[in-house]
Write a structure and sequence with these properties.
This protein is an alpha/beta fold and about 425 residues long. About 45% of the residues lie in helices and about 10% in strands. It is built from 16 helices and 6 strands.
């Protein structure tokens, strides 16, 4: 339990300062208070998370604040996973050392599968066929600048498309006297000036702010969404939007807009999505681990706020064949997102192709818990093991890329995947214990 004195509140607020030095120094001060017993944090559990977004893509958390939230949630490890950028990676690593949390570095992007047998299929992207979300995990620290330079041109191309989508929104909503200024309303709430990305969520968050300014946090706004914009609101979402004191109001409104409004202004991503073969080659070149992000069909939403929608389950066997052919040797998934039947099928296919299984809960909203309760189930214990193996890989690959998890040398030394996981897990655990 955190005793919230005004001083502690101020330090926590400063974790999201625009100044990186202030963020890290505030985290240091908070951890000093933990050491002397002024702040009581829960003991570290075994639960992990490899997919935490920061405000360098879209999130209410800076890298330092994300680490603080992870530590306050009892996590022993945390993984940064921003869209198209690793601008927050160095801070995340430094913050992890301060809070004594083992860290992993990753980047998420959209890749073009149009030159594969999956062309024309809805893969794991609700907004666009033939385009899939891919995660690059375990980036060696020596390659962070390389990754940043690789994605910079794609960030710029994404900005141009974002501008056009804002124009589409303004055209749609001009009759209601609602207008977004791209620089003032969208860029200003991003970290683009420091190498961060601007996503559709930034646009929708800016629109959420405009709508609440115009209609207030009230039934008037809910009626506007339903009657004028013809947005279907799930009961859970509508209830949240009828609560004027809801501290997460604009995030909930963003979710409603993303679910049922985005396709009206969406422009297909093209030049900002690298070809999947190129991305696999890049990942191998820098010594990282590229993973397909499994989404899965939505029938009855586990979270109660998503429409029924088909993704890759109908052709999952073919998907794994394509991934294997492309040289993708890992799959990441969220146990809380899918049914046990879906997860068992994915896990069986991962075992068939000797794919590394990685897990992480997609954190980009203050409503989301840093703790995935499903990981407390013994059935998912392997995901905790692979997280420590991922940490071990990152340590080894940072020292020497030829010693990474999927390097030729280590595959020859440990041809059995389980043995390799065990070896890298021990490296991760040993280095973590020695460091802290």
């Amino acid at each position: 339990m955190i005793i919230m004195s005004r001083e502690i509140e101020h330090l926590i607020e400063n974790l999201n300062s625009k100044d990186k030095k202030v963020r890290l120094s505030s985290l240091s001060e908070l951890m000093k208070k933990v050491e002397i017993g002024e702040i009581n944090l829960p003991p570290k559990s075994s639960v992990i998370n490899n997919h935490i977004h920061t405000f360098y893509s879209f999130s209410p958390y800076s890298p330092s604040k994300a680490i603080w939230m992870a530590r306050a949630s009892s996590l022993p490890t945390a993984g940064i996973m921003d869209h198209d950028t690793v601008a927050g990676a160095i801070e995340f690593i430094e913050a992890g050392k301060i809070a004594q949390i083992a860290t992993t570095i990753g980047v998420e992007c959209r890749a073009d599968f149009s030159k594969t047998p999956l062309n024309g299929k809805k893969i794991n992207n609700p907004d666009q066929d033939s385009i899939a979300y891919i995660a690059i995990h375990g980036i060696p620290h020596t390659e962070i600048n390389t990754v940043m330079n690789y994605f910079t041109p794609y960030l710029k191309k994404r900005v141009e498309r974002n501008k056009l989508m804002v124009e589409n929104i303004n055209e749609l909503l001009s009759v209601f006297d609602i207008h977004l200024d791209f620089e003032k309303d969208v860029v200003s709430i991003s970290m683009y000036h420091e190498g961060g990305s601007i996503t559709e969520r930034h646009i929708l968050f800016a629109l959420s702010k405009k709508l609440t300014e115009k209609f207030g946090k009230s039934s008037k706004l809910v009626e506007f969404l339903k009657n004028e914009l013809k947005i279907k609101l799930w009961p859970k979402v509508e209830q949240n939007l009828l609560e004027s004191e809801n501290p997460y109001y604009e995030y909930d409104l963003l979710g409603a807009l993303k679910s049922d409004f985005i396709q009206r202004f969406y422009i297909k991503a093209t030049d900002e999505c690298p070809d999947i073969k190129e991305l696999v080659e890049f990942s191998e070149r820098i010594g990282a681990i590229i993973a397909y992000a499994y989404l899965g069909d939505v029938t009855e939403s586990v979270t109660g706020d998503k429409p029924s929608e088909k993704f890759e389950d109908e052709y999952l066997d073919q998907l794994f064949e394509v991934l294997n052919y492309l040289g993708i040797k890992a799959v990441t998934y969220m146990p809380s997102r899918n049914t046990i039947q879906q997860l068992q099928r994915v896990r069986k296919l991962c075992e068939k192709y000797n794919f590394l299984q990685i897990s992480g809960e997609d954190i980009n909203s203050p409503r989301q818990s840093f703790v995935c309760e499903a990981l407390k189930n013994q059935e998912f214990e392997n995901l905790i093991d692979t997280t420590w193996a991922l940490i071990g890989h990152e340590i080894m690959a940072t020292h020497d890329k030829t010693l990474g998890f999927f390097s030729k040398k280590m595959q020859e030394k440990f041809p059995d995947l389980k043995e390799r996981i065990s070896y890298f897990k021990q490296v991760g655990l040993r280095e973590w214990k020695n460091a802290f």
